[in-house]
Amino acid sequence: MDIARPLQPTADEERFLAKLAQLRVSHPDNLCARYLTRDLFTSFGAAERERLHDCCRSGAENPESTVGCYILRPEDLHDFDAFFGPLIRQHHGTLAAEQCITDQNADDMDLAALGLPVMSTRVRVARNLKGFRLPASMDRGERIRLEQSMVQALRVLIDDPLYGGRVYSLTPEFGPDPANPNLIDDRQYQALVDAHIMFRNMDQDRFMKSGGLAADWPYGRACYVSADRSVIVWIGEEDHLRIISMRTGAELFEAYDRLRQTLTAIEAIPGIDFVHDGAYGYVASCPSNLGTGLRASVRVTMPSLTKPGVDTKAICRRFGLSARGVGGEDAPIGADGRMDLSPIRRLFLTDRDILATLFGGLGRLAALA
Ligand code: ADP
Ligand code: DAR
Predict the structure, then answer these.
(1) Where exactly are the structural domains of the chain?
(2) Which ligand approaches the C-alpha of residue 285 most closely?
(3) What's the predicted TM-score (pTM) here?
(4) Homologous superfamily (CATH) for 11-92
(5) Smallest-distance ligand from the CA of 247
(6) Going by CA atoms, what residue is nearest to atom 4 of ligand 1?
(7) pLDDT under 70: residue ranges of the chain
(8) Cα–Cα distance between 17 and 37 in angstroms, integer?
(9) First to last CA, the chain
(10) Pocket test for ligand 1, best of 245, 251, 324, 326 (most atoms within 8 A of CB)
(11) In which element (H, E) is residue 366 found?
(12) pLDDT (tens digit per residue) in 298-332
């Protein structure tokens, strides 16, 4: 940490600070603007300011951001604790026991008994691998090496009769290496996106583009899908890996149990070692995904909650749930009542806490339906 007297901000830093000050008034939910004050920013030396500016560029360029910042290096969490600490605790709400335990079960949470029209269940974790820089700091060559390394590692699943399946890749070519055997064309890619299997075009996501996460698109981006399409591994999206278990219907326990089996299989692969922080659990690009990195979501149809004049998101928030459309994180909630519901808080909670929040919140919503 630079102990010299605070340097006068550069012209570019002054513009950045002025933008954040304006957002604190116009967009109070933008946590990056709320917590990165001028005094805090100028308390750092030139090198730290450059790093912190890179972490917060997305929040300054996208006023409607809710988090507004990304973690570019694992050490950012503690080098900028005065910024990330309060922001993380605000986003995840009051602290429960500061534990991040993944080995829980949920066999006593029968969503079907709630009588809600649950169409599908998806549970996923975010993971980043040691030996690679975090996604927003990678270059094209590193992104390609990550994909090639994971394609090799995931042969363990492909060769396992319980999984099978294949990798679908968007990387046009691997440079001097032989052609990409998993490359798919635009039609195949769009079909996988429409099936809610593959991630959307990151270059069209303004938050990820500002934050550096979409750089080199589509190089180093791929997706493993099991033969029965119940297990999916995104490679090179917002985190190095998103390990996903998805099923039709309300089988939350089965989906979670399959995820845990898959996580255990991947963690046993030689060379796989996830970035983990003693205070914040598994390190993710976004502070919203720290901890166990588990997002458990159900897709329901509740027209009574989405009709005009009903503040769907506020009602769901009251029960600890965030509501989003069925087309992904920023998709609007349709008037047809279809939406994706998942717990807001994921940090300092066990997986079981997260699953129980989903189960309890849905029970409260069922009473309103
Ligand atoms: P993440 O959970 O990694 O943040 P998104 O929320 O962007 O990912 O969702 C990624 C894709 O998964 C989207 O196409 C979304 O519609 C789909 N999805 C999310 N939850 C469910 C669910 N419960 N059932 C089916 N598809 C889902
Ligand atoms: N849209 C960004 C990120 C919010 C959390 N979702 C993630 N990480 N996909 C925002 O700050 O609103």
Answers:
(1) 11-92
(2) 2
(3) 0.93
(4) ATP:guanido phosphotransferase, N-terminal domain (1.10.135.10)
(5) 1
(6) 329
(7) 1-6, 94-107, 177
(8) 8
(9) 54
(10) 326
(11) helix 351-368
(12) 999 888 888 888 899 999 989 889 999 887 777 88
